[in-house]
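Run log // design_07
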């Protein structure tokens, strides 16, 4: 008894061919015309196979698919003979067409602004791929109009801050990990659902972040091996860009990976031999770099929750680390006064040695207050070729991977400490002013950049978060203002000293206030995190600052009247900022 499975394949094709519609009839005629060769022509065979795969669909859809596939095969046959230059030209034309479609969807007149937008997008995309600076945001931000909101949760000093919008993660010295949700901008908090004008005035906008979850460790469980929590101070935190993982590192040598939604511990790593002081994710991936006081940098893959390798080279404890999109990272080694660029794939490293003083920039500075660099404490990458470091002598240095020495050194970025009184400097009954030591500069305790832009933020204990910008030639650091403070009442001179003639009655953190006193960050700025609001930052910049009464790595510096917590700064864009050739005011008038 014959069945479908015993019939040869050739007979099956002959029987099924006349049952189909138009395309198979054409195949049959082509087979009749080509009876002489033993093998059927390759083109009819492909059509028969395609007809068999879609035999259950309607005839109209079959004709549409055949035409589409025929056009694709024709385009592929045409592209087979093209050269590399022709292929690049074809891909560029396709890219331009996609950009035009995006511009048309946003509602702009593409014919008028086509050239400017497309040229700008091309430059930005090329610069981002190459890892170079392409955005100049410092001049487009209204830094002096930034609003501020202090939020805290009955904890000790905040040591680190991480952002995965719209959530913020803060850690403190009492083993607390707190998850906060940032508020939307005031314009987006209460959207109007009807066309009628509301009778009541709009409610005041919410500015204070809301606490979502909190997780606290227990120092009494230090001897329990299976305890999945911290048993000592938490020193650093990092959040992945995809919102899946949150990682913390502490003085208990532990590196703990959490689920970002529930803060449930997923894995506890004990590979480090000393305190974990810094964490950084590679942009766009779940590859993690960790720095420790055991003088090593370790690489992790959180997709597999696995350890990869260890990088050796620092001669002192590694206190900070940063990374961008490429598989490399930059770390600083405190007292060894070096910054090292680790090329993970090549298994090589570049060493940049600090400790120098830029003597050309010391015109307005007392020579006795020029301190040599003793410890390199902070690092932040601008792009894949430039990065900045902050030191305990108050200087911010700009580095390039092409040179071993810094391109530029900004001394005393946060000014000098208040000079000691003669009675405080000496134990004599009537000490002379000569025994008073020169005032020392404030350390750079926090440093952050907006990647692939010219924006740099730094913090210390002078009460301000200072904003800097990269010069046009990318060889200097220039002051751009202070968050929430107009530069007219407190001038920022190039050497970073504060020019103020007040009598000192309202001094906070060693900084004298004026009559129109701006907001002061009361405490030591231990960390800074930021992100852009809106598409490409069109709604401004959100900056979160971690503040504490003492330094994140010790208690050798305490601020009287300081507060433990964090501060949110909302930095708007300037009204003069032109977007697509017109300003916001002009659009409203039209």
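design_07 sequence
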């Amino acid at each position: 008894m014959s069945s479908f499975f015993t019939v040869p394949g050739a007979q099956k094709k002959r029987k099924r061919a006349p049952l189909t519609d138009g395309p198979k009839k054409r195949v049959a005629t082509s087979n009749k015309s080509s009876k002489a060769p033993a093998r059927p022509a390759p083109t009819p065979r492909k059509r028969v196979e395609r007809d068999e795969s879609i035999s259950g669909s309607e005839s109209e859809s079959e004709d549409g698919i055949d035409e589409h596939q025929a056009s694709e095969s024709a385009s592929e046959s045409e592209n087979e003979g093209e050269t590399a230059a022709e292929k690049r030209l074809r891909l560029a034309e396709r890219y331009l067409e996609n950009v035009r479609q995006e511009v048309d969807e946003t509602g702009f007149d593409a014919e008028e602004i086509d050239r400017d937008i497309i040229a700008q997008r091309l430059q930005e995309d090329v610069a981002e791929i190459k890892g170079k600076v392409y955005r100049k945001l410092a001049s487009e931000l209204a830094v002096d109009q930034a609003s501020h909101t202090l939020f805290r949760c009955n904890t000790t000093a905040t040591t680190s801050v991480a952002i995965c919008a719209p959530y913020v993660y803060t850690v403190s010295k009492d083993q607390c990990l707190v998850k906060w949700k940032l508020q939307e901008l005031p314009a987006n908090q209460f959207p109007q659902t009807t066309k009628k004008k509301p009778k009541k005035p709009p409610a005041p906008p919410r500015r204070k972040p809301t606490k979502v979850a909190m997780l606290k460790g227990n120092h009494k469980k230090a001897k329990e091996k299976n305890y999945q929590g911290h048993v000592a101070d938490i020193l650093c935190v990092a959040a992945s860009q995809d919102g899946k993982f949150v990682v913390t590192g502490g003085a208990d040598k532990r590196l703990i990976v959490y689920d970002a939604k529930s803060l449930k511990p997923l894995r506890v790593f004990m590979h480090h031999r000393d305190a974990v002081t810094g964490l950084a994710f590679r942009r766009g991936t779940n590859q993690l770099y960790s720095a420790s006081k055991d003088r090593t940098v370790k690489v992790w893959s959180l997709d597999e929750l696995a350890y990869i390798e260890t990088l050796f080279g620092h001669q002192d404890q590694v206190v900070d680390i940063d990374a961008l999109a490429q598989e490399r990272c930059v770390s600083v080694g405190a007292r060894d006064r070096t910054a090292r660029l680790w090329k993970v794939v090549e298994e090589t490293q570049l060493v940049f040695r600090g400790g120098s003083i830029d003597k050309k920039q010391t015109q307005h500075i007392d020579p006795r207050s020029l301190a040599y660099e003793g410890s390199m404490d902070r690092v932040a990458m601008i792009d894949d070729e430039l990065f900045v470091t902050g030191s305990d002598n108050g200087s911010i240095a700009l580095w390039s991977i092409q040179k071993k020495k810094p391109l530029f050194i900004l001394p005393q970025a946060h000014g000098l400490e208040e000079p000691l009184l003669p009675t405080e400097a000496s134990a004599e009954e009537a000490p002379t002013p000569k025994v008073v030591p020169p005032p020392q500069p404030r350390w750079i305790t926090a440093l952050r950049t907006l990647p692939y832009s010219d924006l740099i933020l730094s913090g210390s204990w002078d009460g301000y978060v200072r904003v800097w910008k990269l010069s046009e030639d990318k060889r200097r650091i220039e002051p751009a203002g202070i968050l929430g403070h107009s530069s007219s009442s407190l001038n920022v001179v190039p050497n970073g000293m504060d020019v103020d003639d007040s009598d000192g009655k309202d001094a906070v953190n060693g900084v004298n206030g004026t009559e129109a006193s701006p907001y002061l960050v009361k405490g030591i700025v231990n960390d800074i995190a930021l992100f852009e609001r809106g598409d490409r930052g069109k709604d401004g910049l959100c900056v979160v600052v971690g503040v504490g009464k003492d330094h994140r790595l010790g208690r050798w510096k305490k601020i009287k009247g300081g507060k433990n917590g964090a501060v949110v700064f909302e930095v708007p864009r300037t009204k003069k900022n032109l977007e697509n050739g017109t300003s916001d005011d002009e659009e409203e008038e039209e």
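The longest strand covers residues 524-532.
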